[in-house]
Predict the structure.
Amino acid sequence: MNKTVLVKENFNKKQFDEIITSNGLKENYEYSKRFYQEMKNTDDNTERLIYQLFGDITSYHLDLDSKGIPYGPYLITKDRRSPSIEDLNEEELSFLDDIIEEITNSEIKARVADVLWIRKRNYQKAMIACNAYLQAYYQMVKPESWNSSTQRLERAVQLSKLFRKGKAKENILEALDKEIEKYSNEKKSLFLHHLVELMLKIQKSNFTKYAEILKKTAQSLEKEKDWRLSGEYWNLCSECYRYDKNLVERDQAKEAYGNTYIMLAYEAIHNNDTPIYAVASVHLNNAIEIYRRIETARDIVKKLHIEMLEYQKKAVKQMQKIEISNIDISKITQDVIAEVKEKSFREKLFILSTHWTTLDIKAIEEQARKSLKENVLDRFLPTVKVNSEGKNIHKSSSAYFHDQESAEFKEALKDEMHKQSQIYRQMAVQAMICPIQEQIRSEHFFMLRDLLFLVVNNPFIPEGREQIYAEGLLAGLRGDFLISTHLLIPQLENSIRYILANEGEIVSTLNSEGIQEEKNLNTLLYNPKLKNLLGDTIVFDLQGLLVEKSGHNTRNLVSHGLYNYNEFLSVPTIYTWWIIFKICCVCQYSLFK
């Protein structure tokens, strides 16, 4: 049987246009459905190949945050995936190159030209894609539902950066400038905000006029007491002033940004039947982080810090203790999947961070004492822990001591508590963390930008580390714990140094030669002040998870290259991702609203 070869003459433009004709421009995934349907309906083998080719191309997912190829399969399961850009062969690419000028639909033309640019590195196709994306944006744009249209505009911006100068880049700059002017009074969404963000990605000067537009919008939103949205506009306003080195105006915008969090804290106290002090303290924490970055705002920081401490004390009194007994893992898994199903992406993240509490130290200590009492042999003989190669890596103390106040008994009790904690973590991973992650991946396509709200202005994350945290959280949420572990553990160590240093703690050592070395997690996690900052349970959990030899000791094993590939898919690395994710979320809970 002869193989069908696609050539330009096989392309029936009239028939192609009839398939995609509709009221208004549709998104590629809508066209993909139509092409696949036509593929099923036709008996002509050549037509079937053409419809399948266009069905495949229009099905690709566009990931604008990707550092490599921005297109990938829209669906990936354990044993299969949908079509992807690397599947295209030379014959198909040649066919697309021959017919690109025949395609008049801007959405499909932009996609085909973009695919040809990525696979063949033809700059002419990048220029065609750039112009087609711009046309698609104009045909789709609606300020009230702007996400789809601005994705096309953003991809055009990305492609225009290939050209240092020339018509393509000039067209984009001119288009963005006109759109910002056109929608300068648009304040019901982040549409205007996103347009200015795109301008920041392609141009690095002359931003004062955009800052003034953002300032006007932020002030208007403040009059309506929309503190969340006005805060977003003040933050970008300060960035625009920074690009133009207008430092006084930048700090004024930052102060206004910080004030939006103070007002949100005020609302949490005064606009509810019962004051919600936990939410108010989170807002004040965010405000403090912003004001700390303004040199002239030290007095404001001190005042807000005192107020936040007062709110935190009141928040503790409002908290309730939750006890769980007779846990049925299968029932928990069923319940949690039912709870997150069809919820929004952010709602799922919120549930993932809150559904399972961290360790109950008192319950674990009680269980450890009971275990030591019942397991008589363990009380007499020390327990030896071995690694995957059979090497002895830890030897726990014998618990056979009548004096339970002795150092030896306390050491044995601590070892047993860390052993018990491992069971708890395994339950958390199997019953809750992995099932929710899988549900998120099955229902949502998410990118790096979708997690930035967790890390920006987060009091736990030092300035300049936000992108690293976001990359690590994204990798773990996608199931790549090899990447998440290597990114997040060092950043956690740095963050703990950061919050301890902010409390006046010394986080470095001085050796006999006068060399200063930063303290690592093996020391930092035992600083008494840390329990005041993160809480007893999280600190104990981190100790057993990351540095205790009787626990998982993940930090030290990973740092010394003692994990093989499969061990990065195990309970310790998954739980490490989750607890760091939880800490990030705790500081930003108010943003889930």
Observations:
- The radius of gyration is 28 Å.
- Residues 520 and 558 are 14 Å apart (CA to CA).
- The beta strands are 61-62, 71-72, 384-386, 392-395, 508-510, 516-518.
